[in-house]
Amino acid sequence: MKPNVLLIMVDQMRGDCLSVLGHPVVDTPNIDQLAQNGVLFKNAYTATPTCVPARAAVLTGMSQTSTGRVGYQDKVPWNYKHTLPGEFAKAGYHTQAVGKMHVYPARNLVGFHNVVLHDGYLHYNRFKHNNMETESYNYSGDDYLPWLKNQVGNQADLIDLGLDCNASTVARPWHLPEAVHPTNWVVTESIDFLRRRDPTKPFFLKMSFVRPHPPFDPPQVFFDMYKDLELPDAPVGDWAEREDPKKSGYNPITSKGIVPKNRLKRAQAAYYALITHIDYQIGRFLMAMEEHGVLNNTVILFCSDHGELLGDHNLFRKSLAYEGSAKVPFILADPGNLLKLKKNGMVEEVVELRDIMPTLLDAANVEIPECVDGRSVLSLCKERAVEWREYIHGEHASGQSSHHYVTNGKEKYIWYSQTGEEQLFNLEDDPQELTNLAAVIESAQRLTFWRERLIKELSGREEGFTDGNRLIIGRETKACLDHLLG
């Protein structure tokens, strides 16, 4: 029988928040064990660092230009011909998703046989004043919320803690029993799938956590692990804004500004606590897999859709191209040594979320559709040298902050399309992006090198970002390209 495949996906987890990578405080023993049972990719990125476009890359294996999602826009239908779960289903797999999907319509199966859904707080589903005519504000069939109400009382809701779903600067512990936290629920439902799955077929399970995306609400025991520790200060580059005359940092859902020190430290502690909480629940699921006799016949991939700036350069949330936002954890584990990977390995080559679909299909010896832009990383996980891509191109349409970036994991070039600002970072010498080399005379050749690569990537784009010779400032941006909108 073909191997089972488990995709563990978290939301808004930074690529550096792993103890196996030497983070000064974050403890992730079970994720570390996944890395020891396989390969950790040190330079993994999301090309479009927000939920919807990043998840499109995961589920289709396509670049942002192919999916048509180059920014964040809700309520755009998902009509892709080939998807990761769809290809597994056609190959005879029993496919199941548990947790966050963030597709549209929200109950779109996108190729899965079944979805047990919890997307967290989605504004277009929640806002009753936008949905009164159809009474569709039942959260599009979210499965967690009615379950929660059944467990603790009909008045329970997602907003009970008073924390906004995008608040990256405020936090408080979870107020209900840990067993009913959405993180535990994802694992509980995933364990139930192991019980109910078709034993005559291999399975593909996507176990998708909403956390550590805000609200920052870890169970008390995990918050206590971090609240009194000396937490690392967020790096602030020489190019960052250091004043906040509008006091933007006092807004709990700010994307930039100077946040009161104690408030920020609590948010850091809660964010790290959510990661460790997820890690322990992953450990719970790995034990359940052993009990069901499937652990050693399962290939596991762990990743996030994007990161969280968490105060880096006085910035918060995601969407930007800096390491805290665009770099993600990416681990391919093979507990049963089915793929003959180099165990406890680390790969330096740059990979992207579009590589997940071809990797997992390759691991199961399932044909990879021609529309897939990503590449299987299995060749990088063997004890031999292989040719690989030289860099990736990422972007995000977001008003005045709209930007494009290119990186090979060693250097990074960022171009802000509305202002023309350029940034160049030497990530080997300056992994925290403290020094912008764009204006340094000695870096002029490298700046030109990376600018020309971006021009090549943007040539022919409908927005008109380049004429093939230069970058053109101020072109109108859009979150979705014309071919997606029809």
From TrEMBL:
Residue ranges constituting the Sulfatase N-terminal domain according to the UniProt record: 3-366
Family listed: Belongs to the sulfatase family.
InterPro entries: Alkaline_phosphatase_core_sf, Sulfatase_CS, Sulfatase_N
GO cellular component terms attached to this protein's record: cytoplasm
Naturally occurring in which organism (per UniProt): Neobacillus bataviensis LMG 21833
Metal-binding is among the record's keywords: yes
Molecular function terms, GO-annotated: metal ion binding; sulfuric ester hydrolase activity
Keywords (A to Z) from UniProt: Hydrolase, Metal-binding
Ranges that cross the membrane: none
Superkingdom, natural source: Bacteria
Pfam families tied to this protein: Sulfatase (PF00884)
UniProt entry tagged with the keyword Cytoplasm: no
Matches recorded under SUPFAM superfamilies: Alkaline phosphatase-like
Designated name of the protein: Arylsulfatase
